[in-house]
Amino acid sequence: MTSRPTTLGEMERQSYRSRWKDGTLDLTGGLGVLGVGGTWSLDIYWGIGFLVPILIALWFVLRSKLVEPRIGRVRFRRERREAEKSGIQGSVLVGVGLLVALLVVQLFQVRSGGGLQSWADEWIAGLPCALLALMALTAAALTGLFRFLVYVGVLLVTATVATPLGMEPGPQILIAGGLITLSGLFLFARFLSDHPAQMGGGEAR
Amino acid sequence: MTTGSEDALKAHIEEIDKLVHEPARLLLMAHLYVVDGADFVYLLDQTGLTAGNVSSHMRKLVAADYVEMEKAFVGNRPQTTYSLSRAGRKAFEAYRENIAEILQMLSEEER
């Protein structure tokens, strides 16, 4: 138990937020961003399509094998479950839109061959990072966690700083993804050390 | 405090549900009140109580029909899921109202 909630509503919100304290969402999200950066750098854009199911599977395995044995399972009330479902549907829509937008940006970049106005040509390299920031923003809205807003900042700052330096989108995404993955690893390691696995001891018989 | 209101206070105090009034059980019931159901490990994690404590208090709440218990196996592991019964929800709400009334009666300000 971390801090004391003052109302039943706050108790429920705190309980919901605590379901995301393990860092697995940060870790898989960070790996996802790294994956996008990697496929972008290697010019294998179709690889992004394979990333999504792999990351979802990884997240489910981490949750069911390492997280839930430590913090248990809970079924929230219907209103919360419906809000979560809408949030996930929204995230998926944003994700699909993002994927399409990234491919369009890449095509635009390749086809334009420098034919855009100079400022647009310069800043288009920062657009993929900015689009990924949008994805992090939906995660922040879904989980209600401040640290996802920090990831939005990391992605936007990376794009803002690296683009004028002439850095390509791939390395920009790799840098931001690396930072998010490191944060996720730190949170996950801390979670595992703070929450020893419950071996079913004391379970009501 | 007049005799009439003293009697009312006494009546409210006598109405206190001792099963809910115990601090650890009150905490467990509050956590179950805000969700539809939760397993044993969740209650341990959220309340910070020991396994023995949670186990013994949950047994009492189940025996009083305030909590419904469902046992299942997830993989090879036993999983016990708890949820507040209708009677448990009513008892928790009645307890809150009663305590609020008592505290109001015991406040220093005139009503």
Note down, in words, how this protein is organized.
The complex is a heterodimer of chains A (205) and B (111). Chain A has 205 residues and is an all-alpha fold. Chain A has one domain. Helices cover 76% and strands 1% of the residues of chain A. Chain A has eight helices and one strand. Chain A has helices at residues 8-18, 24-41, 47-71, 78-112, 118-123, 127-143, 146-162, 169-194; one strand at 74-76. The longest helix of chain A has 35 residues, at 78-112. The model of chain A has no long low-confidence stretch (mean pLDDT 85). Chain B is α+β, with helices and mostly antiparallel strands and 111 residues long. Chain B has one domain: Winged helix-like DNA-binding domain superfamily/Winged helix DNA-binding domain (Arc Repressor Mutant, subunit A), CATH 1.10.10.10. Helices cover 62% and strands 19% of the residues of chain B. Chain B is built from six helices and three strands, in the order αααβααββα. A three-stranded antiparallel sheet of chain B has the order 1-3-2. In chain B, helix 1 (3-15) packs antiparallel against helix 6 (86-105). Chain B is elongated and about 65 Å long. In chain B, 27% of the residues are buried. The model of chain B has no long low-confidence stretch (mean pLDDT 91). The interface between A and B is medium-sized, with 25 and 33 residues.
Pick out its properties.
heterodimer; A: 205 residues; mainly alpha; 8 helices; 1% strand; B: 111 residues; Arc Repressor Mutant, subunit A; three-stranded antiparallel β-sheet; 6 helices; 3 strands; elongated
